[in-house]
Specification:
The complex is a heterodimer of chains A (130) and B (653).
Chain A: E1 8-12, H1 16-28, E2 32-36, H2 39-49, E3 53-57, H3 65-74, E4 83-87, H4 94-101, E5 105-108, H5 113-129
Parallel strand pairs in A: 1-2, 1-3, 3-4, 4-5
Helix pairs in contact in A: 1-5, 2-3
Chain B: H1 12-17, H2 28-34, E1 39-41, E2 60-65, E3 77-81, H3 89-105, H4 113-131, E4 136-140, E5 145-148, H5 150-156, H6 164-187, E6 193-198, E7 205-217, E8 221-230, H7 232-268, E9 273-277, E10 282-285, H8 287-293, H9 301-323, E11 331-339, E12 346-357, E13 363-372, H10 373-451, H11 460-490, E14 498-502, H12 503-513, H13 515-521, E15 524-528, E16 535-539, H14 540-557, E17 562-570, E18 575-582, H15 616-626, E19 630-636, E20 640-648
Parallel strand pairs in B: 15-17
Antiparallel strand pairs in B: 1-2, 2-3, 4-5, 4-8, 6-7, 7-8, 9-10, 9-13, 11-12, 12-13, 14-16, 17-18, 18-20, 19-20
Classes of the chains: A alpha/beta (130), B alpha+beta (653).
């Protein structure tokens, strides 16, 4: 497997079951996966690993998803990485807040692994074309 | 007057020259007339008129003619002889005869007493009729004057010497009198008749009353005696009197009217009014006064005493004004305690008395008005009551206001608390939702992964069981989502997102999104768009949500036949409507309201045929209301349902 055919996805989620579920299914679907449990880990992992896409849960302990997104989008090194926000908060304005923070896409939990993979592929294609 | 009568050998002119005035005593002829014996006269003569014919050179003997009278009597004439100075027997005879003749001529001596008496009576008659101030005259039947007194002559007689005007006036008077006389004789001989004549002296009109009487005389024939009474002044006076009388009548009527009016006014005043004269005696009182100061003779003695007492009170009040020295316009006020004679009720009155003075300042009357103070006192009492009531009311209002302020403050705090509670509830539900979703996300995710064959192929029974887990998990997720929707709507957390859009575009969009379901259903789903696509200014997302819900329901409850979606717009009311009509199972009338309630379906039983949370239409109803509209239902059980969403083309802000 080359980097070209196996993009690296950074899955950021403090809820272990969800994080591992998405990681497992992404790997099952042919992606390489890295994991982070909070905002700080997400930033450091992103800087070191330079993933092709970040799945970012917004409700995180310590530095939350919004803040981590703002940091990454403010960084020349990581700005180009597409970030797909994941949230269980379905309140109106949640997606708007995520876009303001710099998220490129927004997915509401519960999100079936299959649907998530569809979204990841769509975003990667968008980046490739852009 | 001594007149020259005749002379022998003397010219006529000279005879006249011997005339003498008897009062001129220097004249020698006058002296000769009274001399006892014949006088010899000579030389020039002074006759008092400057005429001096003289007696010539030879002496003239003047012999007085005395007739039968004494020698010392005054002669009635003189015989002047130029022939010598001696008196012969012939001369004496001649003197005697001439004297007698002269006496005869002058009515003396030989005239009979009867004649003289007749003459005196005649003179007396004229004196009498001339002394009458009214014109009296005797005329013939034609009105020609026979005898008239001087007054009548002034009116009816004129000599040639008199002025033209006067003569004409007299002529006119004669004509008028003749005419009047002829009418009197013919028509009414003995009646007085008015006659208008002209005063010849000044031409003014004179009015007479003529009384004519016919006099029959065997020698003179028929004559008419007329007495004219000057009634010019009388007429003028009569007219004046008449005029004055009319004036008096008018004045009297005016006074009477004035008095009547005054009486009416006085009587119409509710307060007692009394007019007294300067001695304090009552002149006039109106009806209310009479109730206080008069009483019938058969009234009880208590009433009589009360009237006397009232009288005494009033007299004592008014005496101050009558006795006091005061100028005009002085008003005296005082309070008098009177009593109603019949009821015995005490009447406190305020008396106001004013003087009526003449132009010279003399007191003629006193007018007193008695004002019943009971009403004023009652009013004062009521006013006090009203004021205390008002004060009390004000106090109550103040305390109520304070109470209200307290209540308001409490309510405000409660509102804040409620708002906080509501916010907390919303937050809580949002958190709950999140907390629900996180594990549900894992359940659905792993189930899905297993069904996707991540763990390899599964035996049929396990796959079926996993499918059950999956469908129940999805149902739970739907319930959570819909509860969240309702919560957000009620908490106002689903604000209106107003934009412009077209219903004609929205309908195909929804049909496309639900196309997978439509395709599976094998139903004929058609749309009928509005001919004039209404431009909506509303919340597109909410309208869409309602339409999705209604179409989903139609698809769920229709097994065969068709579904029609229609769009209508009424320009007059600017209301747009979307209908969703199906040929499904329909809803019984008794369930038409129920289905819009939370968590309700027609079949609530645990073994119900159709899935769903029972929140779909409840949400639709809330959304329609938020959009300013409503959802209505027409349905017949077994035939199908027609849902209509009606909303204004411009949503309320």
């Amino acid at each position: 497997m080359t980097t070209e055919t196996h993009p690296l996805i950074l899955v950021v989620d403090d809820y272990q079951d969800a994080r591992e579920m998405y990681a497992e299914y992404l790997q099952y679907s042919g992606f390489r996966v890295a994991e982070a449990r909070n905002g700080n880990e997400a930033v450091s992992q992103a800087r070191s690993l330079k993933p092709d896409l970040i799945l970012m849960d917004l409700s995180l302990p310590g530095m939350d998803g919004w803040e981590a997104t703002r940091v990454l989008k403010a960084d020349e090194e990581t700005r180009h990485i597409p970030i797909v926000a994941l949230t269980g908060h379905a309140l109106a304005g949640a997606s708007e807040g995520a876009r303001k923070a710099g998220c490129d896409s927004f997915v509401t939990k519960p999100c079936l692994p299959d649907d998530l993979v569809v979204e990841v592929k769509r975003m990667l294609n968008t980046v490739k074309q852009g | 007057m001594l007149v020259g009568v005749a002379g022998v050998g003397v010219s006529h002119d000279d005879v006249e020259g011997y005339a003498a005035v008897l009062t001129h005593l220097q004249d020698p002829l006058v002296r000769a007339l009274t001399a006892p014996a014949p006088m010899t006269l000579r030389g020039n003569r002074d006759n008092g008129h400057g005429r001096h014919p003289g007696f010539g050179a030879s002496p003239v003997l003047a012999v007085p003619l005395r007739g039968d009278r004494q020698e010392d009597a005054e002669g009635v004439g003189l015989l002047l002889l130029k022939t010598g100075t001696s008196v012969t027997g012939d001369v004496n005879w001649l003197v005697t005869v001439l004297g007698q003749k002269l006496d005869q001529i002058r009515g003396r001596g030989s005239l009979t007493e009867e004649l003289r008496k007749l003459r005196r009576e005649r003179a007396l008659f004229f004196t009498i009729i001339n002394s009458v101030t009214d014109p009296i005259m005797l005329t013939d039947t034609e009105g020609r004057l026979i005898v008239a007194n001087s007054r009548a002559e002034k009116l009816f007689a004129a000599t040639e010497e008199e002025s033209e005007g006067r003569r004409r006036a007299v002529e006119l008077n004669n004509m008028l009198f003749s005419a009047a006389l002829s009418r009197t004789v013919v028509e009414a001989p003995s009646e007085a008749r008015e006659l208008l004549l002209v005063d010849p002296s000044d031409g003014s009109d004179l009015l007479f009353e003529v009384l004519s009487t016919t006099v029959e005389d065997p020698r003179e024939g028929t004559g008419i005696v007329s007495v004219l009474r000057n009634i010019t002044d009388l007429r003028r006076a009569t007219e004046q009197i008449e005029e004055n009388y009319q004036k008096v009548r008018v004045a009297e009527a005016a006074v009477r009217a004035e008095r009547d009016r005054l009486n009416l006014i006085i009587d119409s005043v509710a307060d007692p009014i009394i007019v007294t004269d300067q001695s304090g005696a009552t002149v006039l009182m109106n009806a209310p006064s009479e109730e206080l100061f008069t009483v019938g003779p058969d009234a009880p003695s208590t009433a009589q005493r009360t009237v006397q007492s009232n009288d005494a009170h009033f007299s004592s009040f008014i005496s101050g004004l009558l006795l006091g020295e005061s100028g005009p316009g002085e008003i005296r006020r005082g309070e008098i305690g009177l009593m109603n004679p019949l009821s015995g009720e005490t009447i406190p009155v305020e008396a106001i008395a004013g003087k009526v003075l003449t132009e010279t300042g003399e007191l003629t009357a006193v007018v007193t008005i008695l004002h019943d103070r009971r009403e004023a006192l009652e009013r004062t009492r009521l006013y006090e009551q009203l004021r205390s009531a008002s004060d009390e009311l004000q106090m109550r209002v103040q305390s109520a206001t304070a109470e209200l302020a307290t209540q308001n403050e409490l309510l405000r705090r409660q509102a804040i608390e409620l708002e906080q509670a509501s916010r907390l509830k919303s937050q809580f539900l949002a958190n709950m939702s999140h907390e629900f979703r996180t594990p549900l996300n894992a359940i659905l995710g792993y189930t899905h992964m297993l069904l996707q064959g991540v763990a390899g192929d599964l035996p049929g029974n396990i796959r079926r069981q996993l499918t059950r887990i999956d469908s129940n998990g999805r149902h739970l997720l739907t319930i959570i989502n819909e509860i969240l929707d309702i919560t957000r709507i009620e908490a106002g957390k689903m604000p209106m997102q107003i934009s412009e859009f077209s219903l004609n575009e929205l309908v195909p969009e929804v049909m496309t999104e639900l196309d997978p379901v439509i395709s599976r259903s094998k139903l004929l789903v058609t749309s009928r768009l509005a001919s004039e696509s209404p431009l909506m200014v509303s919340d597109r997302q909410k309208v869409k949500q309602v339409l999705v819900n209604l179409l989903s329901n139609a698809l769920k409850f229709t097994h065969q036949g068709r579904i029609e979606i229609g769009v209508d717009f009424d320009p007059s009311t600017r209301m747009a409507s979307i209908i969703v009509k199906d040929t499904g199972i329909g809803i019984a009338p008794e369930h038409h309201d129920k289905i819009f309630e939370d968590f309700r379906q027609v079949d609530d039983s645990p073994s119900r045929q159709y899935g769903g949370t029972g929140l779909g239409l409840a949400i639709c109803r809330r959304l329609a209301s938020a959009l300013g509209g409503r959802i209505t239902l027409h349905s017949t059980l077994g035939e199908g349902s027609l849902f209509t969403l009606t909303i204004p083309s411009e949503a309320p802000q």
